């Protein structure tokens, strides 16, 4: 775990300006602290000597105000930098996750934990640790430089004892690294397991297995709690150790200054300056150590957010398709395509061909598990086969279509061109047989539906997704089991609409419905491969 990872600036350009400004402000704040020490020493000397202390008081006041203003600026700038850095990282990991082909995509739970908790953990790192790190590098150098000029003996004591602090901090940091990684693993397990349990809760309740999951979630949470407590214990211990070391070092400087003052070998001003400057050399490093524990999560998160596996660079969701050579019109050309899921040897698709030009209805049939959905995924560009097909722009209605949290209208307009009017939306609902249902809702198109279409039946969800396909202007429609979950009448309506639509667009529908097969123009039947038959 590095205190600062230069990849952050290199790979996320949006972080450069705020981090740069924050570093300059933190260094200026450190310089103001040194100036304040000089002004205070002069003020005390003038007061004791009953000299012209008003001028020194003004200098001290000026340095004090400057330090305060810069401190305030660093705090505000830190908060701004924290939001800028975490947003940039979150945007990066999510956009790369979405763009990556399914094969290169990291686990969804891991990506979610990184984008939510990971990016959030970066905030204290950027807001507090980075300014502390800059001060920890700049201020001790300035303080020691000033001491060399003012009182070389005190400078020598500081130079000898100062390296012990970063050395100590680095040793503690190495132990923290393992603990923090353990905590992240526990958190990911917790997030993954909790997500699985929530998704499977209806099934678990049906089989009377829900109670057992409480125990499992409790055990995983306990692991996370214990890992957190271990990190906290280490944080308190290491802060105390660094504090003790710094205090002893400052005490040594103070004792030597006191002895020399009593012997009259140094002036009061020099003695005071040495006593004021010495802590300025130690406290920034102590602060780096203290902030490090709060920021350790952030440093680990940055490491993971920038790791090539969580952000597969240079990949595109569609390795082919709507790029420069997208075929115009309604063209689909899949010839002898082969595909095996990552980590498996067996080819789900082995030499499958599907060629269609112009409008029409192609149905894909075959026994369950033969690879029909996989074929649609390949045509949609979601999976990357050995020999990429040529296809026009597609609109894909999957078996579990995604309906975002929001109004029914926004769910229907997802993927539709901006020119579609409200009457177009009602027309699509009427054609698909949902007009009466939506018109009967108190809020009509403004009705809110939950995440994943929560509040709609499976059949209603399918028809909302089909109405959305009608509203899109993609020349090729891919439909996975469009009549599943529908009763006889609703299924017939969908078959009629698809038949009508096939006069203008190319429809490729995976189906088990004989009615849809009966009205199709082309029929592709997938048979199990030899490997599938023998497995
Ligand atoms: N993500 C995956 N990783 C590994 N294997 C998978 C994955 N998804 C599907 N498969 C396997 O690929 C094969 C084809 O699955 P696919 O969903 O394409 O079948 P299908 O013909 O659409 O089935 P159904 O008619 O039941 O929907 C199945 O044996 C399935 O187990």
Which helices and strands appear, and what pairs or packs with what?
Layout: H1 7-11, H2 16-48, H3 53-99, H4 108-150, H5 152-161, H6 164-206, H7 210-263, H8 268-305, E1 331-339, E2 349-357, E3 360-365, H9 372-380, E4 390-391, E5 394-397, E6 406-407, H10 408-413, H11 422-432, H12 435-439, E7 448-449, H13 458-471, E8 476-480, H14 488-501, E9 506-510, H15 514-518, E10 522-525, H16 530-534
Parallel strand pairs: 3-9, 3-10, 5-8, 8-9
Antiparallel strand pairs: 1-2, 1-4, 6-7
Helix pairs in contact: 2-3, 2-4, 2-8, 3-4, 4-5, 4-8, 5-7, 6-7, 6-8, 7-8, 11-13
Bound molecules: adenosine-5'-triphosphate.
Which features would summarize this protein structure in a list?
Rossmann fold; elongated; ABC transporter transmembrane region fold; ABC-type transporter activity; binds adenosine-5'-triphosphate; alpha/beta; AAA+_ATPase; 535 residues
Give your account of this protein's structure.
The chain has 535 residues and is an alpha/beta fold. The chain has 2 domains: 7-305, ABC transporter transmembrane region fold, CATH 1.20.1560; 331-534, P-loop containing nucleotide triphosphate hydrolases (Rossmann fold). It has helices at residues 7-11, 16-48, 53-99, 108-150, 152-161, 164-206, 210-263, 268-305, 372-380, 408-413, 422-432, 435-439, 458-471, 488-501, 514-518, 530-534, and strands at residues 331-339, 349-357, 360-365, 390-391, 394-397, 406-407, 448-449, 476-480, 506-510, 522-525. It has a 5-stranded parallel sheet, with helices on both faces. Strands 2-1-4 form a 3-stranded antiparallel sheet, with helices on one face. A two-stranded antiparallel ribbon has the order 6-7. Strand 8, helix 14 and strand 9 (506-510) form a beta-alpha-beta unit. Helix 7 (210-263) packs antiparallel against helix 8. The longest helix has 54 residues, at 210-263. The radius of gyration is 33 Å and the shape is elongated. 40% of the residues are buried. Residues 311-324 have low confidence and may be disordered. Adenosine-5'-triphosphate binds at residues 341, 344, 348, 366, 368-374.
